[in-house]
Amino acid sequence: QVQLVESGGGLVQPGGSLRLSCAVSGSIHSRWIMGWYRQTPGKQRELAATITHAGTINSSDAVKGRFTISRDNAKNTVYLQMNMLKPEDTAVYYCYAKSEITSRDYWGQGTQVTVSS
Fold it and tell me: Across all residues in the chain, what is the average pLDDT?
């Protein structure tokens, strides 16, 4: 049973930093596209950033230059380092993983990030 285990998130002041982590458990391989989407009330879930097993990154213009996505393939873990946070980054952040072998995708339970003074 594949599960995504998220950690990180919380409350931070504008200009601050947070780091999100997400591990894929229950998988026998590391061929995953992994990343993060975010959602605010009343809006559709939107891409923050994803990274393939080979390291190809896709990120939204809203986070480029401020957020850095990385991964540890040996641990099946993806990280999102969020710097220079803004109030508009406030959202529930969902970990995402898609198998590059089966194309099946999975979602984490979500973690709240609040940027406020």
Answer: 96
